[in-house]
Amino acid sequence: MTIGDSAPALALRPPLGEHVRRYVPALDWLRRYRRQDLSGDAMAGLIVAIMLVPQGMAYAQLAGLPPQAGLYASIVPLVLYGLLASSRYVNMGPTAISSLLVATGIGQLAAEGNAEYWDLALVLAFLVGIIRIVMGLLGVGFLVNFLSHSVLAGFTSAAVLIIGASQVEHLLGIDVPRFGTFHEALISILVRAAETNPITLAIGLASAALLYYFRGPLPRQLRRWRVPPTIREPVTRAAPLAVVALTTVLVWGLGLDRSAAVRIVGEIPSGLPPLTLPSFDLGRWQALLPSALAISLVGYVESISSAKTLASKRRERLDANQELLATGAANLGAAFTGGYPISGSFSRSAVNFAAGARTGLSNVVTAAAITLTVLFLTPLLYFLPQAALGAIIIAAIFGLVDIAFLRLVWRYSQADTAALLITFLAVLELGVERGILVGIVASLALYLWRTSHPHVAVVGRLGSSEHFRNVKRYPVQTHPHILAIRVDSSLYFANANIFCDLLRASLADRPEIRHVVLIGSSVNFIDASAVEALDSLVQELRDAGVAFHLADFKGRVMDRLDRVGFASRMGEGRIFLSAHEAILALGPE
Q1: Which of 103-112, 309-318, 501-510 is least confident?
Q2: What are the two backbone dihedrals, phi and then psi, of residue 485, each rounded to the nearest 5 degrees?
Q3: Labelling 201: which of 90, 427, 444, 558 has CA 20 to 30 A away?
C-alpha cells in the first residue's frame, strides 16, 4: 500500500481531541462557559449541598455505615460525575434505594459497626463502578429495559416500607436486630415497642413535623408573602439542615444524651476523605457480585430517569452510555475515597435544575461545600440525635412512591399490575435482591404469555371505504367465501402454532370459505419457527381447497419471506399491497 493510498483512511480518523471530548464532556462545555452561567451553577450547587449534608449522613446510617461515609461519597464522586456526565443537572450522591441495597447486600456478610463492613462497602462501590464502565464501553445500557416500570414501582413501594421499618428503631430509641423480611421487622418492633424512649420519640416526631412544614405549608406562605424565588428556594430546601441544627443544639443544651439516653451520632472525624483501597479478595467479589449487579441496574435507572426528564425540559441531548461511564467513574471515586455506592438522586437533581444549574460545575460546587463541611464543621455534629436522621430518611422516601403510576397500572393492565404486585410481595418476603430478580422473571414471563396469545380479528370493509375493521366492533361488509383475518402481533415460536390453531378454528364451521387473506399490518417480524408453521398451514389449506393470501405486510418482512421462497410456495398472485386490493381481486363469487 502506498502513502497516497493510506492518506484518505488517516483523514477519516477523528482527531484525538474529539475522542477526549467525547469521553470528557466538560472539555466541551468549559470552552463555551459564560460568566452568567456561574451564578446559576454556584447557587444551585450551594442549595443542593444544604440538602446533601444531612441526607448524606442519614443515608449512610441507612446503609449501616458511619455518617462520614455519606459525606465522603459526596465529594470526589460528584467532581468526577460533573466532569464526565452528558447530563448537566443530575446530582450524584447517596440515595435511599442504593443505601438500602448496600445494607441488604453487606448485612449478610458482616455486622454493622466493624471495619470489615466498611471494607465491603468499598468493594461494592468498586464493583458497581467496574460494571457500569464495562456496560458503557460495550454500549449495553439497553439491559436496564428489562427492569420494567411496573417492576420498579413494585420494588420501590416495597423498599419504602423496608426503609421506613429500618428507621423506626432510631425514632423509638430501641434496638431491633437486622431482619430478613418485612414481617419479621414488624414483629421485632412490636415486641420491643414497650422499651421506647419517650424523649427520643418526641425528637423524631418534632423533626418529622418540621420537615413536613418546610415541604408543604411554608412554601405556600412564602408565595403569599411574595418572597422572591431566589430566597424562597434556599429556605424551603433547608429543612433537613434546620432539623440537624435545632435537634443538635437541643440535645447539647439539655444534655439529653446523658440525662435521657438519647442516642447521638458521636464523633465524626474532621479532614479530607482518606485514600482507601478496596480489597481484591476474589471471595469477597463473588459474594458481593449479586448486590453489585442489582445496584448497578437499579441505581442506573434512578440516574438515567432523572437525566432524561431534566434534559427533555431544555431539549438537550443525552448520551446513555456516557452516563454509564460517568456514574461508573463516580462509584470508583467513592471506592478509593472512603465512600460507598451512589446514584443520581431525582429529588436533588430536580432542585439542582430548578435552582438554575447550567453545567456540571454545579456538582463541583456542591462537592466543594461538602469539603468545607468535613474540614471545619463536623465537630459541631457530635450531639446530632440519630432520631433526627431517621426522620430525614422517612420524610425523603415518601416521594419515592409514584401514586399516579400505581393508579394507572391498576386501571390499565392486569399483567402489569400482576408484575407490580409480585415484585412488591417478593421484595418484602424474599429480600431486595431476590425480589428484584423475581420481578424481572415475572415481567418477562407475563410478556411471553401475552405475546404468545396474539389478538386476532376477523375484519370487513367499513362502508364503501378502503378501511377494514373488526367485525365484532363495527358494522362492516364481508364476503361469505373470503375470510379476512388480521393478526395484531409479530409471529414467533411462542405464538405461531396458537395463531394457526385460531385460524383453523375459524375455518372449521365455515365450509363456504375459499380464500383466507392474512392482513399483516401489525407484523414486524416472522421468525423461522413461524415460517415453518405457516408453511404447514398453507399446505393444509391447499389440500382443503382453500387459497392462502397475504396483504399489507411490511417490505422488510416480505424480503425475509422471499429469501426462503415462502411466497413462491404460496403460488402466483397471492400477495397484495393492501386488504382493499385483495378483496377487489378475490371479489364476490
Answers
A1: 309-318
A2: -130, 135
A3: 427
